Sequence to fold (148 residues):
Amino acid sequence: MKKKQSKKKTQYKKKKNYSEKTAFANLEKASSTATTPKKSTGIPKYVADRMARRIFFTAGIPTILGMSVFVVSYIIVTRNIAEIPPSSTIAISALFFLLGLAGLSFGILSASWDKEPGSFFGIENIPMNIQRAKAAFKPATQNFEDKS
Fold:
């Protein structure tokens, strides 16, 4: 038979009562010593905002147009304005969706990483951003090749 384990008596232990001031002071001390500032290797906020604006215009608008093709086609066919074959509706919407996909890539790759915004289209930033993307994946592939 197993021996019964006794319950610890917590009623005799005295709880430490800290004032609010000392409790938060201790918390701030613990958090300041525990966290060490790291160098962020992510995308800076101003660059991410710039990318989001470009993506909205270069990918968002064609995607909205791709979805609206179905609505417009439905209205034209149901009101007997014209006969539109379903294959052409799908082809036109697919064209807009592909244009949106290309716009997504363009919006990401054409954003300037400088504090000041670049040119309107940002075509001059594309080769530099492609090199940055390749450099981001190099350490992972080098580690994989070294282990094998």
User: Anything to note?
Assistant: Residues 41 and 136 are 10 Å apart (CA to CA). The helical segments are 20-34, 45-78, 86-109, 126-147.
